[in-house]
Amino acid sequence: MTTPSLDLLVKNVRVVRPRQPAVERLDVGVKDGRFARIAPDIPAGEAREVRDGRGLLGFPGVVDAHTHVGFYAPLSGDAESESKAAAAGGVTAMLTYFRTGQYYLNRGGPYAEFYPEVLRLSDGHYWVDYGYHLAPIQQSHLGEMEALAVDHGVPSFKIFMFYGDYGLHGKADRGAQRGFLMLGEDERYDLAHFEFVLRGAAGVRERHPRLADHVSVSLHCEIADILNAYTRIVQQDPSLTGLRAYSAARPPHSEGLGVWIASYLAHEAACRNVNLLHLSSRKALEAALLMRATLPHLDLRCEVTAGHLLLDYDTPAGPHAKVNPPIRSREDVEFLWRGVLDGKVDWVFCVNESSTTETKLDRNRPDDVWLAKAGFGGTEYLLPGVFSEGTRRGLAPGRVAELLSWNPARRFGIGGKGDIAPGYDADLVLLDPDRSVTVRAADSPSAQGYTPFEGLTLRGQVMTTLLRGQVVYEHGKVVGPPRGRYLRRPTPGP
Length: 494
Hints:
The chain has one domain (about 60-415, about 435-455): TIM Barrel, CATH 3.20.20.140. The mean pLDDT is about 95. The relative contact order is 0.17. A hairpin with a 2-residue loop joins β2 and β3 (about 35-40). The chain is built from 14 helices and 17 strands. The protein has helices at about 75-90, 110-120, 145-150, 175-180, 190-205, 225-235, 240-250, 250-270, 280-295, 305-310, 330-340, 355-360, 380-390, 395-410, and strands spanning about 5-15, 25-30, 35-40, 45-50, 55-60, 60-65, 90-100, 130-135, 155-160, 215-220, 275, 300-305, 345-350, 430-440, 455-465, 470-475, 475-480. The radius of gyration is 22 Å and the shape is globular.
């Protein structure tokens, strides 16, 4: 008897590939955790295990390039619950933004001491593959960027542009923000620091050509001076309440101004690879597109969250949907969708700042948006949400795969993920495009306990998720032990 050449064969899959307009009905063969053969009618005898894909759509595993695991809860436990939720939504790789200061590990100090602890607390607690982006907060962190990129495989860095003079959840004085970031008395988290972060990344890129394509800086583009001024105005206006008030207090032009400043500083610092994070409004996306045209030598990438595509500020979720930057108007939502459809948005992600109801809302005033914590989870709704709302607007399945898998994997140096082709990690998501599901927080593996997407009906349900050829989610349940591996980037591709 001939020894089977494949470990696994998934037959009868409508394979969705990025950059490919056609969806073909094919069989998918896996060997040693990677796709080995993609072809019609592969004989069942060539595989040790055979599964029926039942004609479902087969997407490459989703790369959620922007999460915040370990933010409102201890890292190890949060990694377990939120990576389970990720697997339930077809996510097979998570990249988490992490920093020193309050929240996360609630400590400052050098990354040489801090980051090994992050890795220790992560090991064995993820059900999907995982990696990190890091934020140089202290002045001393600037000198550690090269070691983080070269020794730890973290070539992507973040700047929170409003943190120096505005609070995470609302207005805060400068002294409180210094304590929040755990800065020394002679340190400032300001535009000059942002410039030096950009210069630091440019230096790493120049000295290490192997990393050049993947060394990038991501910026949360909101300007504290604008936020402080408008918060004072809005809080005195009784006609504005809830998410509409929070949006007005952090107005879209603050995002647009942040985009312009970030882009010019990147130009000045010769930092080519810049990611403009979670653009939430027409003004923000228009500013990004103008900067792209004005500074074509920069590789400016635009990202949008599923939350900003699925919700507007009149959602019944109320303070449960508080996030930074805020959920905006329906007009903003539709403009973002036009950007997605026109190819002007590079990837879509979840953000996933998961917090329980007890920590999200004020116990005595649960309807007060000013007292609610910012951020919410929902990585399990990323693929179903973008597929459902996107295809309704004419978004092709291949473009969904590009936005959720291929583009973020390429940008952040995850060489083995993002496509269904020989040599890539055998990350496969089987999605039933005809099954409609009403979102219920009670059905999610997340520990959050609520979702601002509660009650939304999405067309398209994830039925099975495979990570490197192993089933990690099926029949509504997470399967097996945690198999997630640390992604020391750039990871090798085919």
